[in-house]
Amino acid sequence: MPTAPRARRNYRWYDLNPRRLGGWFAGLVRALAAPLGKTASARTAAHTANRLAPIVPVHTPRGVLRFRCPSFTAARRATRFLVSEPETRAWLEEYAKPGDHMWDVGANVGLHALYACLLPGVTVTAFEPVPNTFAVLADNVAINGFGERASCLCLGLSDANAMVPIYLTDADAGTTMHALGAPVNVAGAFEAAGVVNVLTARGDELVARFGVTAPRHLKIDVDGHELRVLKGLRSLLPGVRSVWIEMLEGAHNADENSRIESLLTEAGFEKRHRAGMNQLFVKLPRSILCRASRVRPAYAVPAADSSHRKR
Question: Is the confidence at residue 11, as pLDDT, over 50?
């Protein structure tokens, strides 16, 4: 029996890939500005690009956030904010209380840092080392009027203070999976789209030497650099109540994840639920920690009494 021919889809101009369509519009602007001369056409194109970069409003349960989107990736992050990582927002709403301070380590364009600022009395320090992504982060803080609630630092947290090259997977603002020190990330080696020297610093020294507000909550999403971040702020962990940290699955990440869990367990945290690649650790109450240190486990073998040894 002959099969029916497949229906042909009638493609329309707005079905095209957004990147390709945007490239065509950019080419049209450059062509129209070319007769103005080299200097005037460059200024016209730059002004047009700046005016065309949309500010996307996102209506969250806590209020409206506005995100400037100068790149395809930044626009995708803003438009997908309400469907991407809802567990992260749930963590903030449950644990962040008035007067608490959060560190957003690997803040990118500031999605969750800004959402935290919608919570009553919560303040944020956002860390983002990639310069063009940091510029969008700082701009988003400004256009939302959170300049007094959120501090933005263009540096990466690590276990040492240094100048380190960061290898970019893509030049677009808002992209991720970059790598410090060498063009190798958790997915393997890659061909870098560019290299930028950035400052890395220990979190504990930022607090001790520069007066950065110590965190009550930590959100860490740095694409495989999480353990070094924790080592650099180990002395701050006694004051931290919860840690929301990315822990990638896979055999090549198993050792790194076990070391992260050990470090946090030793600091008095208990592993709670996991959501996708993110894991929640919560500080145990001091009374529970004290009892755990005093009470011998039921399975412990009693110590031998020297007076009853066989002779």
Answer: no
